């Protein structure tokens, strides 16, 4: 015992000091709130329908999602999605590594842009969060009861899956389309034959009631660059809208060659008609290899299903499937207002934001007010579909969201500002600078039928001089803006991870009520689970050794293992026996060429170790689980190849 604890009095002093520290910590928590501007505090304590939100930001090139609280801006968690994540072994463990499979093999990295919450009746419902992988086209579904990735589906015949994954109002589908047009199916042709040989695709991914995804159909479209999308709602439900640039169909120096035309397009797709055409069997089955990686709920092991073909529709054969709305100039975001009547396109090279009217579009279609066609797709007359143009909206408008109170907010990248305008009169009513170079902006529910229009978060690309410098790479920045009054007010800025493109937020209550606290040990169907210390064992099958190990505060069973030999492949299947919230155990093996494990209560996770030399090697728990966490450790003895040390194992025997 340390000399510090020599007397009882000393014990009291230590206890008192600990208590004082605890109180200090608590106060610091509150102190942090008062670090906010006065305006932030007012909002924070203001009564209202919802005061607290989860804010899900994409990690951009990190491939992950980060979760923040609003209005605090505090980082709560990283959810690994398209990238391996050593913090919890995602993508490394035997159970999760299949999640990163593709038809090309395992790809442990991607570029994720647009988180999109699932919806019911046009309102974010807190069941799932979808997000796209750009580089190797994929869409992931994150389960918001566990904050874990449950499924990833690959999209064939696509490259640069940017216009993705936008949900329909009841999450019947998430939609996606290709940024890069390609020869479809792939073939060896000259890049110069772009105009003859390259096509785009628009993909509808069906989401079943239990969340499981599969590709319903793809639509073959002209070889433009499809950039962003949003599904219709209310009256425009049954339609989805996609922006495209490069209607010039350039294949080189796009910055010049794809900026020639005054107008590019918003493609309006009638997906109800597409659905009917598929049901009538009027589609082509076309080659397209893809995989679906799904977490099995009972084993909590990810399985991969490989598929070879997709159903493809050709607009030429299906009159009324797609119309092009001419849209100035190289549009980026396309956003549908809460009423479903207005479709705002953000022409990044245009001086205004053109807003199309859905009802005018239907009338123009009826009256055949066309301006020619492209590959059998009618182009509607601009004057026939336009509802208004928002002038003086800033330079480089990229994205628009809505507050549900009749206003829209557009991000302007070049002039670094958020511009507020009124739906219907199209006049700019307020503007606020962003520090600096804003990309997306996000309002809780801001792309849905029922925005919770209290806050707006600006997602900024450049932060020189905003935070302490951190070497050549500086933090990106999110800025919290109060939009509850007439004038926008900057409340707070906080640094973000990776490069968040888009983010979505939802009232905390909606997500909190479905939280999973632990996994039931009885329901654990992992074939290697050890559901109690008495169920643990070590089995040899040739040179594979399977350790069925159990972890509970604060020991492993077994914690002494002998009889392992050089050349063996050892599988540590560790089951966390705890049945309580917030008690994960970790597992790290000396010399293992993989990430540690982080095992949730009731769950089994597997680490593979191939010992390279004889000796005795320790393992231990990496998550501070209790006062005796540091005692949670063990040894494995490794003998030479061909040794006759028998297999033996146990804890305290
Ligand atoms: S996109 S801002 Cu994916 Cu606008 Cu990045
Ligand atoms: Cu278990 Cu530390």
The portion of residues forming beta strands comes to: 35-45%
Radius of gyration: 28 Å
Sheet with most strands? 11 strands, mixed
How much helical structure, as a percent, in the residues? 10-25%
Described by the principal axes of the CA atoms, the overall outline is globular
Mean pLDDT score, rounded?
Answer: 93
Using DSSP, what is the number of strands? 46
Describe the structure.
This protein is mainly beta and 653 residues long. Helices cover 11% and strands 43% of the residues. The strands form 10 sheets. Strands 6, 7, 8, 9, 10, 11, 12, 13, 14, 18 and 19 form an 11-stranded mixed sheet that branches. It is globular, with a radius of gyration of 28 Å. 49% of the residues are buried. The chain binds (dicuprio-$l^{3}-sulfanyl)-sulfanyl-copper and dinuclear copper ion. Dinuclear copper ion (CUA) is lined by residues 554, 585, 621, 623-625, 629, 632.
Set down the secondary structure blueprint.
Layout: H1 8-35, H2 38-45, E1 53-58, E2 65-70, E3 75-79, E4 101-102, E5 105-106, E6 116-120, E7 123-133, E8 138-143, E9 148-154, E10 166-167, E11 173-177, E12 182-183, H3 194-197, E13 198-207, E14 213-222, E15 225-231, E16 239-245, H4 254-257, E17 263-270, H5 271-279, E18 284-295, E19 302-313, E20 322-328, E21 331-336, E22 342-347, E23 353-357, H6 358-366, E24 370-374, E25 377-380, H7 382-385, E26 386-390, E27 397-402, E28 407-412, E29 417-422, E30 428-433, E31 438-442, E32 455-460, E33 476-482, E34 489-496, E35 503-507, H8 508-512, E36 537-541, E37 544-552, E38 555-557, E39 560-565, E40 569-576, E41 585-589, E42 597-599, E43 604-609, E44 615-620, E45 633-639, E46 648-650
Parallel strand pairs: 14-19, 37-40, 39-45
Antiparallel strand pairs: 1-2, 1-35, 2-3, 4-5, 6-7, 7-8, 8-9, 9-18, 10-11, 11-13, 12-13, 13-14, 15-16, 16-17, 17-20, 18-19, 21-22, 22-23, 23-26, 24-25, 27-28, 28-29, 29-30, 31-32, 32-33, 33-34, 36-37, 37-38, 39-46, 40-43, 41-42, 41-44, 44-45
């Amino acid at each position: 015992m340390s000399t510090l604890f020599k007397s009882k009095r000393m014990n009291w002093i230590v206890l008192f000091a600990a208590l004082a520290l605890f109180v200090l910590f608590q106060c610091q928590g509150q102190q942090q709130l008062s670090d906010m501007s006065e305006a932030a505090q007012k909002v924070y304590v203001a009564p209202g329908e919802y005061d607290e939100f989860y804010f899900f930001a994409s990690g951009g090139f990190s491939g992950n999602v980060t979760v923040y609280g609003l209005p605090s801006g505090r980082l709560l968690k990283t959810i690994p999605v398209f990238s391996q994540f050593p913090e919890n072994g995602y993508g490394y463990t035997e159970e999760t590594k299949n999640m990163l499979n593709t038809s090309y093999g395992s790809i442990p990295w991607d570029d994720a842009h647009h988180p999109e919450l699932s919806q019911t009746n046009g309102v974010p419902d807190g069941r799932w969060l979808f997000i796209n992988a750009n580089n190797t086209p994929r869409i992931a579904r994150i389960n918001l009861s566990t904050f874990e990735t449950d499924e990833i589906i690959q999209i064939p015949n696509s490259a640069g899956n940017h216009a993705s994954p936008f949900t329909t109002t009841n999450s019947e589908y998430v939609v996606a389309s290709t940024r890069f047009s390609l020869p479809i199916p792939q073939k060896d042709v000259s890049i110069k034959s772009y105009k003859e040989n390259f096509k785009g695709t628009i993909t509808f991914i069906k989401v079943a009631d239990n969340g499981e995804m599969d590709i319903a159909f793809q639509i073959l479209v002209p070889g433009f660059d499809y950039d962003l999308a949003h599904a219709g709602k209310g009256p425009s439900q049954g339609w989805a809208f996609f922006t495209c640039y490069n209607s010039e169909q350039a294949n080189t120096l796009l910055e010049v060659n794809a900026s020639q035309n005054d107008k590019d397009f918003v493609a309006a797709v009638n997906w109800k008609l597409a659905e009917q055409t598929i049901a009538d069997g009027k589609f082509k089955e076309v080659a397209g290899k893809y995989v679906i990686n799904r977490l099995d709920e009972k084993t909590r092991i990810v399985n991969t299903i490989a598929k070879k073909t997709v159903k493809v529709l050709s607009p030429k054969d299906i009159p009324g499937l797609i119309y092009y709305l001419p849209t100035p100039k190289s549009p980026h975001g396309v956003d549908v207002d809460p009423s479903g009547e207005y479709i705002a396109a953000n022409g990044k090279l245009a001086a205004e934001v053109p807003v199309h009217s859905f009802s005018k579009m239907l009338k123009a279609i009826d009256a055949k007010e066309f301006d020619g066609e492209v590959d059998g797709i009618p182009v509607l007359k601009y004057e026939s579909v336009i509802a208004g143009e928002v002038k003086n909206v800033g330079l480089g408008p990229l994205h628009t969201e809505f507050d549900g109170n009749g206003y829209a907010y557009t991000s302007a990248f070049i002039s670094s500002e958020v511009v507020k305008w009124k739906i219907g009169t199209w006049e700019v009513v307020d503007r606020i600078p962003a520090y600096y170079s804003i990309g997306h902006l996000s309002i809780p529910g801001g792309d849905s039928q029922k925005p919770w229009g209290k806050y707006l978060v600006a997602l900024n690309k450049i932060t020189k001089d905003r935070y302490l410098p951190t070497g050549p790479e500086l933090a990106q920045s999110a800025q919290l803006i109060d939009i509850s009054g007439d004038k926008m007010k900057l409340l707070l800025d906080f640094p973000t991870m990776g490069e968040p493109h888009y983010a979505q937020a939802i009232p905390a209550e909606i997500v909190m009520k479905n939280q999973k606290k632990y996994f039931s040990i009885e329901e654990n169907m992992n074939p290697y689970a050890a559901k109690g210390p008495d169920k643990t064992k070590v089995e040899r099958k040739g040179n594979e050794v399977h350790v069925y190990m159990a972890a509970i505060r604060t020991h492993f069973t077994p914690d002494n293992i002998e009889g392992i030999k050089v050349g063996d492949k050892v599988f540590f299947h560790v089951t966390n026996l705890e049945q309580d919230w917030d008690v994960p155990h970790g597992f790290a093996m000396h010399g293992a060429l993989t990430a540690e494990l982080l095992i949730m209560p009731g769950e089994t996770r597997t680490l593979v170790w191939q010992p390279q030399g004889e000796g005795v090697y320790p393992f231990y728990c990496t998550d501070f689980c209790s006062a005796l966490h540091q005692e949670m450790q063990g040894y494995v003895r490794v003998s030479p190849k061909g040794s006759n040390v028998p297999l033996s194992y146990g804890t305290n025997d």
